[in-house]
Amino acid sequence: MHTQTRRLALQLRHPFKLSYGTTTVRENVLFQVSAGTHSGVGEAAVVPYYGETAERVLQHLSAPALAEALSGDPLLLGDALDRLPADMTPAARAAVDIALHDLWGKHLGHPLYRLWGLNPAHIPVSSFTIAMADDEDGYREQVREARDHSLIKLKLGSGDWRTDLRYVQMARQETRARLCVDANGGWSADEALAIIPALTELEIVFIEQPVARDDLAGWRTLHDSLPVARPPLIADETVQGVESVLPLAGLVDGINIKLAKCGGLRPAMQMIQLARACSMKVLIGCMIESTVAVAAAAHLAALADFADLDGNLLVSNDPYRGIEMRKGQIALTERPGLGIVPAPEQ
Amino acid sequence: MHTQTRRLALQLRHPFKLSYGTTTVRENVLFQVSAGTHSGVGEAAVVPYYGETAERVLQHLSAPALAEALSGDPLLLGDALDRLPADMTPAARAAVDIALHDLWGKHLGHPLYRLWGLNPAHIPVSSFTIAMADDEDGYREQVREARDHSLIKLKLGSGDWRTDLRYVQMARQETRARLCVDANGGWSADEALAIIPALTELEIVFIEQPVARDDLAGWRTLHDSLPVARPPLIADETVQGVESVLPLAGLVDGINIKLAKCGGLRPAMQMIQLARACSMKVLIGCMIESTVAVAAAAHLAALADFADLDGNLLVSNDPYRGIEMRKGQIALTERPGLGIVPAPEQ
Questions:
Q1: What is the edge-to-edge ordering of all strands in the sheet holding A2-18?
Q2: DSSP annotation of A343
Q3: What are phi and psi of A67, to 5 degrees?
Q4: Residue of chain B nearest A111, judged by CA positions
Q5: Which of A30, A103, A255, B237 is 20 to 30 Å from the Cα of A286, by its Cα?
């Protein structure tokens, strides 16, 4: 197998404000692997707050140890994944995992969802994300403009739960769409206990990462203190790779699986199996990514309860196309592998 | 999809003695499902000591609710499996699951191991089983006759652990093959603590079901009292379906997954994922079954540490062929699905 790596500077349609900071460009890395007449592509989302850098990802993806690991038969997908160097970061590993799956699917002549026996009609409606804004009228306008989406995710974590709640109430006034919220770990357990009953009243579909990443005591408090009739509390930053799932059994109601966090499709699939065995809900999420990584997650999302796969919609220079989204519903094609093709030159 | 069900009376080459009793014939049930030009076949192993009867299995496999569940597209494997009636016994469910996988693989044009990205060269050497015999010279002779097998499983559970140990020592004197043992739950925890150090000395590869099925306290005692340097202690009767794996974390060193216990390939795959997340070894076993069910397990065995897939070798009237075993090493073909074909008329 031959490999090729290139930087991908993704231009964001709108500056993206999080509790972590604001960004206007995101530098990801594309990874291509070829064997015979087929090639597969993968993407590493370089997420600064997970400690990834483009340089480190590029270094991993051009390492001789990786080339050595990819010297075998592309049909033996499991063997190739087993041989990946142990020191790869999750994002770099995800890029290789996605590219190998794409290549494998092309060799077998079927799209990935088909090779997993899945029905793409089961992909849940994907949420559309709205960031907080200082300008309240502008915020209301943003919510109204999202009228084509049936599920809207509100980013919270302003630092004051009462402000957070006020923004949710504003959104509720402006749209009939279903709403979910992502606190990005911005609440203490006590603050979460104060706001969650109000969010339950507002029929929020799910609540992501109410407490800080490492606040397991906070998760325990929420689990023990809140009524069972509540929106599912979904761990995002608290859950990373396969090994992080079982310790959360009985602590969280669900997990947000992202390929760039866990290292690709194979570990994501294992996490889904573990989550199901622990009666957890599954949300398939993404980073700010092109169609490459979002398509990979979309194939898997047929197994999920919720999807948050709008990463490519936030980007103005997506180098690939091949998934369509209408009112949040993703459609996949019958093309083999990821089912994506390069976008026409712009 | 059209379905067809028939009884399969398997003639055993040798009467088979277990701690449960002796058998010379085993009545299984074959299940066929057809769509378009393809058909898939599955098998229900009717295991009396698991409370299955041929009548009950036949009833489940010809139920209108099952026909209704199988009315969809055979490519949508997951949907069909999700729709199976909840009240099916594990063996009946396994027959349908195997047949649907076979049909799905034929529609996609690839063998199952390929559709899972697995390398059939990783299928572990399968053990060959030798039952206890009252005649000690005859027992030694049986062990010598198994010289073509590199891994021999000794069935124990005579009711006296000293007798069990003597049989293992006899076998050790007669062969250079690797040996594993299956106590079939025949020891108390104290008896197991007495015999296991001696079995460790004899370099037994693994020890199956040392204590009784429901003796979780016994498993706990063994786990806490035995040195880590011991043959892995593998649960067989103690583990049944998907839900039984996680409660055994930290209690057992591995699990014996059998399709007829857990309900087929999809739950077996999930059990493997769970076992790996709990650092358990995986043994893929079988019942007394034809090539149909053994081939299905063999495809999955590429993910296992150990295999015990000699069920079809014990049968003189196997209605299918398509897996070859040489010195315990199973070879699969490139044919799609299970890769098996009807045996020529006898």
A1: A2-18, A21-35, A38-44
A2: P
A3: -55, -40
A4: B108
A5: A103
CA distances from A101 to A32, A41, A83, A294 (A): 11, 9, 15, 14
Q: Return d(Cα B113, Cα B117) in angstroms, integer.
A: 6
A80–chain B nearest CA distance, Å: 10
Helix (H) or strand (E) holding A163: helix A161-174
Q: Tell me which residue in B115, B246, B269 faces A277 most closely, judged by beta carbons.
A: B246
What length does chain A have?
A: 346
- CB–CB of B274 and A274 under 8 A? yes
β partners of residue B98: none
Considering only CB atoms, which chain B residues are within 8 Å of A278?
246
pLDDT over 90 (residue A127): yes
pLDDT top residue among A53 and B295: B295
B248/A contact by beta carbon, under 8 A: no
Q: Is the Cβ pair A119, B276 closer than 8 Å?
A: no
| Interface residue B108 vs chain A (CB under 8 A) | yes
CB A8 within 8 A of CB A28: yes
Q: What's the CA dihedral at B220, B188, B184, A273 to 10 degrees?
A: -10
- CATH numbers and ranges of domains, chain A: 2-109 (3.30.390.10), 114-342 (3.20.20.120)
Rounded (5°) CA angle B197-B200-B206:
120
| CB contact at 8 A, A155 and A130 | yes
Mean pLDDT to the nearest integer, A298-310 = 97
Residue A111 has what DSSP assignment? B
Written as six digits, the tokens of B234 are: 């593998």
- Read off the pLDDT band of A18 (50, 70, 90): low
- pLDDT, residue B18, reads 61
What is the pTM assigned to this prediction? 0.95
Write the DSSP symbol of residue A27.
E
What is the ipTM for the molecules in this complex? Answer: 0.94
Percent of chain B scored above 70 by pLDDT?
98
CA distance A200 to A268: 29
**Is residue B170's pLDDT more than 80?**
yes
Would the CB atoms of B274 and A278 count as touching at under 8 Å?
Answer: no
**B116 in contact with chain A, both atoms CB, cutoff 8 A:** yes
Q: Do A77 and B117 touch (CB under 8 A)?
A: yes
Q: Inspect the interface and report whether the beta carbons of B109 and A104 lie closer than 8 Å.
A: no
Asked whether B250 and B273 are in contact (CB, 8 A), the reply is no
- Minimal C-alpha gap between B270 and chain A (Å): 6
